[in-house]
Design brief:
- The complex is a heterodimer of chains A (436) and B (292).
- By secondary structure, chain A is α/β, with parallel strands linked by helices.
- Chain A has 2 domains: 32-148 and 289-387, Response regulator (Rossmann fold), CATH 3.40.50; 150-284 and 391-411, Response regulator (Rossmann fold, 3-Layer(aba) Sandwich), CATH 3.40.50.
- Chain A has helices spanning 2-27, 46-65, 85-95, 107-120, 150-165, 184-187, 190-200, 217-227, 239-250, 267-270, 293-303, 318-341, 348-356, 362-367, 410-428; strands at 33-39, 74-80, 101-102, 123-125, 143-144, 175-181, 203-209, 231-235, 258-260, 281-284, 359-360, 377-378, 390-395, 400-406.
- In chain A, the strands form 4 sheets. Chain A has a 7-stranded mixed β-sheet, with helices on both faces.
- The longest helix of chain A is centred in the N-terminal third of the chain and has 26 residues, at 2-27.
- Chain A is globular, with a radius of gyration of 22 Å.
- Chain B is mainly α.
- Chain B has one domain (2-278): ABC transporter involved in vitamin B12 uptake, BtuC.
- Helices cover 71% and strands 3% of the residues of chain B.
- In chain B, a hairpin with a 2-residue loop joins strand 1 (127-130) and strand 2.
- The chains are: A alpha/beta (436), B mainly alpha (292).
Chain lengths: 436, 292
Amino acid sequence: MGRKWIFTLFALVLACSLILASGQVQAADEKAQFFGLLIYRTGPFAAGGSGMGSGWEDFMELRNMQGGVNGIKYAWEECETAYNTARGVECYERLKDKAVLFHPWSTGITYALIPRGTKEEKVIFSSGYGRADASDGSVFPWVFTTPTNYWSQNSAKIKFIGEKMGGMDKLKGLKIANLHIDVPYGQETKPMLDALAEKFGFTIQHFPVPWPGIDQKAQWMDIVRRFKADWVINRNWGVSCTVPLKEAARLGFPRERVLGVWWCGSEEDVLPAGPAAKGYYSANFHGSGKDFPLVKEIIDKVYGTMKGHMAFTRVGSVYWSRGIYIGVVTEEAILTAHKKFGVKVLTGEEIRWGMENLNITAERIKELGLEGFMSPIKTSCENHEGGNIVLFQQWDGEKWVPAGTQTPMNDFVWPLIKESAAKYAKEQGITPKDCK
Amino acid sequence: MNFFFEVLITGLLVGIMYSLVALGFALIYKASDVFNFAQGDMSLLAGLALVGFLTIMPLWLALVCTIAVMTLLAYATVFIIFRPLVARPPLILFMAAIGLAFLVQGIGQSIWGTDAKGLNIGIPDNPIILGELFLSSFDLIFGVVAAALVGGLVLFFQKTRTGRALRAVADDHEAALSVGIPLLNAWAVTWVIAGIVATVAGIAWGSRLGVQFSLSLIALKALPVLILGGIDSIPGAILAGLVVGAGENLAEVFIGPYVGGGIQTFFPYLMALLFLWFRPYGMFGKEIIDRV
C-alpha cells in the first residue's frame, strides 16, 4: 500500500513537471536569443544570487514586452547552482547547447568554465569578478571582466584610502588588514595588494576567514588588538560580509575605516548589522535605487503587470541593480553584433565580437535611461575590462550614499595583468592573439 | 598576557553560543536516538518566524508565536515523520532528519524569503572595557541567558513529572513504555524543548549574523562539540562548547599565523578526533556495552 502511494506521488510530480516544462520549451523557441541563468536562489548566498538573477530577468522581461532586441526576443532558463562550483559546471553542461553566453556569478565557477567556454566557443562574462588576468583578451578571448576586474578595483581602493588619509604619500607606514574569505575569490587580490604595499610603503597583512565565516572573533581580535590596523579591507561574501561590521563595532574599530569589496556592498550585507554598519564604505560599479528612468519603466511595466521576478521591496537594491547592469551590457553587445552580422539570433563567436567591440558612451547611457547609473565602457581585442571608474559608497544607516570615484592604477595594474596572463598562456600552451 | 586572556574569555563566550546549538542535538538524541540533522535549520526557521512576526506585533507576542510555530513543527515532526519509523535502525532515522532539514529550510525561505533580515531585540553590542580587556556586552548577556536556560532545563528534568518521564524514556524506551509513559508524546515534548533551545540559539546567532540561510550552518559548529562532549550528554554539550570556543580562538590567533591562518574551522575537529582516542564516547557520553 505504502509503495503504491509513493509511486502515485512520484507520477503526479512527474506529470506536473512535464506540464510546467512545456511552457519553458515554448519560451525557448528558435527565434529567441537564449540565455542559461546560472542562478542561486538557495544556499548561503541566495540573497545575492536571487537579486542579481532577478534583476537580469526583469530587464529581459521588459525588453520582451517592448518587442525584443531589434525584434529578437529573449528566452532563458534558470539553473540552480547554489554557488557550488560542481553544480555550476553541471548547469553549464546542461544549457550549453542552447546558450552562447554565461554569467557564472561565482569566481569558482568562472575558473572552472574558462577552459570549457574557450574550447566550446561560449562567452564567459564575469562582470567584476573571476580571474583578474582574464581582462587580457589576447590570452582569454572568450572571457570578459567588464567593467573592472578585482586587481583594478583594489588599486582604486588603495587610492581611495590614500585620499581619505590626505594623500598617497600618507600611505607610507599605514597598516592595512586584508580580511578575506579563504576561497579562490578571496585569495584573488593578495598578489596585487602585496605589490601595492611594496610600491607605496604600507604594511598589508592577510587574514583568512574559513568558509562560511560566521565567526570572525579571532581574526578581529588579531586585527584590532595585535596588528593594530589602520584600515580593513572586507573581502568576503554573503554572511561573512556582515560579521566584520558587528565585530568592528564590538571592538570599537571605526566603521569609516572598513572598506568592502563590491560583493560586500549591498543592503543585504549591512541591514542585518543594524547600527553597527553606519559609516561603512564599499566599492561598487553601478548605481542603485529606483530613480532611473529605465528602472521606473521596469517597475511600471514589469511589476505593474505582476511579471516581476523578485519581491518588489528589493527592487532598486544593489544586487538587483547589478542584474540590470549586466543585462544592459549584454544587450549592448547584442546590438553591436547585430550591426555587423545582421539582426538574428547570434552565435557564440558573434556575441563574443559584440562584447569585444562595446562602446557604451555617456550619450548612449543617457539614452538608455541610466544616466548616473553606470560609466562608459569601451572594450577591445586586448582590453576585456573596458571600464575605467570604480565607484565608492557609504552606508548612512538607512541607504547607500555616493562617496566618490577613483580610476584604477592602470599603468601599474596592466603590466601585472599581462605578466600573469602570459604565464597562464605558457602553462596552457595558448598562443596569444595578435590584437594589433 | 592581557591579550591572551581577552582571546580566551571571548572564546569561552563564543563557546556558550556553540553549546546552545549542541544542546538541541543532545536533547533529541538522548530521548529518541535521532541525530537531528535539522537542528541548525530549526534555528533558521525560528529566526525567520520571529523576524516575520516582529513586523506585525510586539516582541513578547512574536516570541510566543515563534514558540507556537516550533511546537507545531515538533508535533508534526514526531507524529508525521518519525511515528512510522519507530523501531527502525538509527540510519533510517538519520536519513529522515536530513530530509526534515531541507524541508524546514525550504518552507521557511518560501514563506519569509531568502533575503538577509536584521534582528534587533534591543540587546546592546558595545565593547565593555575591563582594565585592558575588550569584551562584548551582547556576548556577556547571552552567556547569562544561556546559563539561565540550562538551569531551567535542569530544574525541569529533575523536578517536574514530565521531566522525570522524559528521563525515563531517555534511559530505556521499553521500560518507560511498560510503566505507561506514552513514548510519542514524550518525544514530542523533547522536540518542543529542542525547538525552544533552537529559538534561543536562532535569536543569539540571528542578532549577530542577520537572519538568513547561513543561520542553518551554525549546526556545523555544534558537531565537534558533540563529538567532544558526548552526543547524548547535556553537561557534555555545555562543557565541550566552552572548550571548542576557547580552543579554536586561541588556535587561530596564536597558531594560525605560523600555518597561514584560517584554521579555526578544522581545529575543533582535530581536538575532538584526538580526544576520541582516549574516550570514544566523548567526555560525558554514555558508554554502550553490547552483549556479544
